[in-house]
Specification:
Radius of gyration: 41 Å
Number of helices: 30
Oligomer: single chain
Strand content: under 5%
């Protein structure tokens, strides 16, 4: 079998200034048989070009063989005159026009000068003229005209060799942000987008070929020189304006980056067999701070201090850092968030910007540490501090780690611990490096005494003050239930029913349910009550019943058992009683049981009972209503039956 080797192309480096524009020059050399165009006087040619529209001018440049075009003839005449290399005769009148920005001829004059610089067959000589006669003179007016012309040609790579000249002007006039220095710096940065890209082979072949790229030392030297010029103008611009510490640190890091980039260019062995493509600035995501300093304590402390003074830029930088941390799986996010939270908490009471950043970081923060600190801060005589801290606790319960509603259980467990120990709960610092998944992840004071020597740590409260304070903390649940998504409500309330039932003697749960019922109201999450009914009915159906045998034993053990049965049978009833009658508006009974119940014995008028309509007979909630009604009848809670199933 014959194998055909791929064609190997050995391209040579081509000078852009010569090769790219040959097709557009007015040299009359494409065909020896074509007669030269008629030459018109220089003054008339310039006058013609100053009074044509931009579209017509560009069309003449694109089609230099259009012998009938007066614009083509004018351009040809100027090129013919410049055979004498008398560039001043053409450039000086043009310069007088575009140095007067309010002149109607300013833009057309700049357009003609740009033609001389980029498209004329004398362009290389004109470049030399511009460098020696204009840029190297001591005339400030000539310097200004030159930078205006070079700025106008900002999108053309053939002007890259002017970067050193522009850098010289920037240094010469750069003590203050003068017009010449500012334009020179902007133009250098614009040219550098092209200057920092190694030249590739001009041939663009789509076939399967091996391209061997020949290195050009001159090209690499130009790139290295461009980095040097960029570094010089950054030092110039840095001293133009007063900057705060954050901005100055960004400038310093930018200088470090430029130095490192320059070193990488000089050490290019690993790049010698590749076509290197650099993304343009617009394609690169903006990082307000270099990566190397993002996570340093000094940077974070400086940013936090500026956030404390309501510095919006510092807040934007912190948000960028938080976003980067979220995406970086190698980061120790809990330690990072802890140091950030420590700084933010000193400002949140009176600084909305700090509150916004704290809310932003809650998705990656260790909420087990954050919430107790907010609970302690809420114990303040200042009403604003109290309200802000409670609102932040509610935001923490709504954050991403607790979108399933588990945060409610964790928070109530913290309050139970506070009431029991009269101290805020203590969490073991970063014991498992993962978000709280359930109340079991909370470690209170009892379980951490062995590892905490100072048992006086935390906030100590007692008496009526404790009762008032915990009631305020529980009011946070009203905010949570009003803002939480539907899934979080149903999941959180489902778990809370069973958690409450497991501790029937703890009144904290009933207080929690009262706050939740206030938050739900009549319009918020109408389906939530059915979640509570469903799980309360399920518990009630499986509960132990009191028997005569157990009641007649009259022993200490039997008395404890009787007490627990009574208390547990009351627990779901107490949960259901916390909701207002208005909450039960959607609860009704199927008509099939109307004749099965002795309504007189219950002292209830059946006409006032909410009966389901014929269209609702297949409703998924009717079975739940019937189960609840049957369990309530067994407990002879006629008052409660009236509240749920009638308008009485």
């Amino acid at each position: 079998m014959d194998f055909k080797l791929p064609e190997i192309i050995l391209p040579h480096v081509i000078d852009d200034a010569i090769e790219d524009n040959n097709d557009m020059s007015f040299n009359g050399e494409k065909s020896a048989t074509v007669e030269p165009l008629h030459v018109i006087p220089l003054g008339k040619a310039v006058h013609t070009l100053l009074h044509v529209k931009q579209e017509a001018f560009q069309k003449a440049i694109a089609k230099p063989d259009d012998r009938d075009s007066p614009i083509v003839r004018a351009l040809y005449s100027i090129d013919d005159y410049l055979n004498s290399l008398c560039f001043s005769d053409v450039y000086d009148p043009l310069k007088d026009h575009f140095l007067k920005p309010k002149s109607s001829q300013a833009k057309p004059a700049l357009r003609v000068a740009r033609y001389l610089l980029i498209y004329s067959r004398h362009r290389l000589n004109f470049v030399t003229f511009l460098k020696t006669h204009e840029l190297q003179s001591d005339d400030k007016r000539r310097h200004l005209a030159a930078v205006l012309l070079l700025e106008d040609g900002i999108d053309n790579s053939v002007l890259v060799p002017f970067i050193p000249n522009l850098a010289y002007l920037a240094q010469h006039y750069g003590e203050k942000p003068t017009l010449i220095a500012s334009i020179a710096c902007d133009t250098i940065l614009a040219y550098s987008r092209k200057a920092l890209q190694p030249r590739e082979s001009i041939e663009n072949c789509k076939e399967n070929k091996v391209q061997v790229i020949e290195e050009d030392d001159n090209n690499w030297n130009e790139i290295n020189g461009t980095w040097i010029c960029i570094k010089e103008i950054l030092l110039i611009m840095k001293k133009w304006y007063p900057f705060d510490t954050i901005a100055l640190s960004a400038w310093d890091e930018l200088e470090i980056f430029i130095t490192a980039a320059q070193d990488a260019i000089l050490d290019r062995d690993s790049l010698s067999r590749q076509i290197i493509k650099f993304a343009l600035v617009d394609d690169i995501p903006l990082n307000r701070l270099p990566y190397s300093v993002i996570f340093s304590n000094g940077t974070l402390n400086e940013l936090l201090d500026n956030v404390g003074t309501s510095n919006e830029k510092a807040a934007d930088m912190l948000n960028d850092i938080i976003e980067k941390v979220e995406k970086d799986q190698s980061m120790d996010i809990f330690n990072f968030s802890s140091s950030l939270i420590n700084g933010l908490l000193s400002y949140v009471a009176n600084n909305d910007l700090a509150c916004k950043i704290l809310i932003r970081i809650m998705d990656i923060a260790d909420l087990r540490s954050l919430i107790p600190r907010l609970m302690e801060m809420a114990y303040d005589s200042d009403p604003r501090t109290n309200q802000v801290c409670k609102a932040l606790i509610a935001k923490a319960l709504l954050s991403k780690p607790w979108l399933n509603g588990d945060g409610v259980l964790v928070y109530i467990d913290m309050i139970r611990s506070l009431k029991s120990l009269k101290k805020l709960p203590i969490t073991l610092p970063y014991s498992n490096k993962k978000p709280v998944a359930s109340p079991a992840d909370i470690t209170t004071l009892d379980s951490s005494l062995s590892s905490v020597k100072d048992t006086s740590y935390g906030l100590t409260i007692s008496g009526d003050v404790l009762q008032t304070y915990t009631a305020e903390l529980l009011s946070v649940l009203q905010l949570w239930v009003m803002k939480a998504p539907k899934e979080a409500i149903h999941n959180g309330l489902s778990q809370l029913v069973y958690t409450s039932y497991s501790a029937p003697n703890d009144g904290t749960f009933i207080d929690a349910w009262k706050n939740i019922s206030h938050g739900l109201g009549s319009d918020g999450h109408p389906e939530a009550i059915w979640t509570v009914i469903k799980h309360c009915s399920r518990i009630m159906k499986g509960q132990l019943k009191l028997t005569n045998e157990l009641l007649n034993q009259e022993t200490e053990k039997s008395e404890r058992e009787v007490y627990m049965i009574v208390v547990k049978r009351l627990s779901p009833l107490l949960i259901l009683r916390t909701f207002s009658q208005q909450t039960y508006q959607s609860v009704s009974l199927p008509k099939s049981i109307q004749k099965q119940v002795n309504w007189t014995g219950l002292n209830i008028d059946p006409e006032k009972v909410k009966w389901a309509s014929d269209n609702d007979n297949k409703s998924k909630h009717l079975a739940l209503s019937k189960n609840l009604f049957e369990e309530l009848l067994l407990r002879t809670q006629q008052t409660f039956v009236k509240m749920v199933f009638s308008g009485m």
